[in-house]
# Entry
Amino acid sequence: MTYNQKRLIKIIIGSIFFGIALIWRPSDIRIYLGLFLVGYFVVGGEVLLRAFKNILKGQVFDEHFLMCIATVGAFIIGEYPEGLAVMLFYQIGELFQSHAVSKSRKSISTLMDIRPDYANVETMGSYKTVDPEDVSIGDIIMIKPGEKVPLDAVVIEGHSSLDTSALTGESIPREVSEGVVLLSGCININGMIKARVLKEFGESTASKILDLVENASSKKSKSEKFITKFAKYYTPSVVIIAAVIAFIPPVILNNQSLSEWVSRALVFLVVSCPCALVISVPLSFFGGIGAASRMGILVKGSNYLEALARVEMVVFDKTGTLTKGVFKVQEIKPKAIDKHELLKVTAYAEGFSDHPISKSIKKAYGKEIDTSKIRDVKEYRGYGVNATIEGRNVLVGNKKLMDKMNVKNLDIENRIGTIVHIAIEGTYVGHILIADELKDDAKQAIVDLKNIDIKQTTMLTGDTKHIGEMVANNLKIDKVYTELLPGDKVDKFEEILKNKKGKETIAFVGDGINDAPVLARADVGIAMGGLGSDAAIEAADIVIMTDEPSRIPIAVKISKKTIRIVKQNIVFALGVKALVLVLGALGIASMWSAVFADVGVSVIAILNAIRVLNVKEHINKNLEVIAN
Amino acid sequence: MTKKFRLKGLDCANCAAKMENKISKIKGVNSVNINFMTMKMSIDIEDSKSDEILESAVAAINKIDSKVVVKSA
# Structure
């Protein structure tokens, strides 16, 4: 029988005695009192025992002890029904509370149910099921349909769909095949996959995420610190006031019965535990962090969740954060030459270059480049390249290079991106537009941020004024600072920080690796694309596991909801307690209402805190974003 | 060094807060965090005399709630 089942049986027996005593009302006071006392010892015996043991150990102001004084006190002043009823009610409340706690523990653990239990490792041709801790790098593992990926690994055989929702909140399955890296914690949906382990269990994604989320509660928020401090002083203060109420008025006022004032004081003792706050506030934060992790947002501490809720300005990095960070040929504009020929010639001229722009051109060309056809390559750093391709002189580069080489009649383009001009034998033959694409949800992210009252969005970029401003206009970002060198970004951000007023916080969103100094400097540093990037996880306070900026408004929403619930619970718990204390001192509130103010409020506060875990509303919202 | 423990039977949040407070005052404890929801304690202690420090930490826990069983995790 579990502890709570025993407690339930005791409560039932105690209630039966309580009922008999009230209905029968034996005229013999000894039998009447006896019935209550038997009920009391059945229900509260354990509380008495624990209180006694704790006193021996020097723990005086402990809730069991106070509950004992309150109920024993009721018996002494002749209020037998109260004495038993309060103990009964207290135990029922404790039972509910214990149930609520274990339920919320369960919902949190299902929320973070990404820890793999086992791995199928290949040993000499057959597969053995082992603890993921015992698997080493380089081992071959098999992942069957329905199983969790146990360790970060790369697929060497088979293909399948993967449910990544536990890590990313993404409901659309991800297709994987040979060469694709699998992250632990994802669930294999249909195919059988063989994979080679890349990281040990402790270093794998699932363990890292769990570690992070579990340790996040050690970075305490201000509200949590307040509650801890408050709890320290609350109990002794209430007990002292109770003593004052019990004994001072009967002494200094005439015609006052001691028992009346003692019974008022007992009300105080019943509400002396700050439990409702002590449980519900950390639970809300923990729940908020858990809920965020379910949406692919890792929050590294309660304090960051709190700071995020106060964000009024979000500063973005451009490349890799709002844009995909991958250059792509957007447009080919030939002049008196075939389009494919133009692309081919350009790709050949850039044949030996590793520059991101050259790479994107070669990718667009898509065919093997026969390097034997490339001669006399001359690279002009920062301008372009000159080469002889199949006997023709090809010049590829920016406007400055064309001007320098006296190429005339250039196209004038006003679009976002880098324009590569091409000339053959000194004659202009057209241009290729290469640009970094905006992420699909970048626009939506800015709109959503505006909708949740973020006052200002800002973009910092090392890109040219022209491109930066165009991107900002396109996304409707309020402010943009362009042509910033990496060091300038920190300075610019410092300047923004200096101008902020009051308690508002400023978040910086970057792609983790290049932006580390700014991420560290921000009130809330948010790194994008944490999946697989250790540097990003290190540098930031909050990591967006997917590459989507639209998760930022979701993170802000979760943080605001968490803080709202925390505030509700603080106000509710303190309000009810204060009310009962005042009414109790005036002799209006009964001990019954005091028990409700104690355990009833705890249960309600816990149930309220659990609401944080409901992430469905965000998931649905997110699907709409994808659908749009 | 940081060690992690499971606190089985931890069912009172205020007790968890008290335990954390008491343990943090033990000499040789650099930092301690008790997570009531996950029932886990992570404690950072000085390497020398680690056994002694852990013993007094467990004693502090049981002084507050004798039902709690401390298991290494």
Notes: The helical segments of chain B are 13-24, 50-64. Chain B touches chain A at residues 11-14, 17, 21, 31, 33, 35-40, 42, 63-64, 66 (CB under 8 Å). The CA atoms of residues 6 and 38 of chain B lie 8 Å apart. The longest strand of chain B covers residues 2-8.
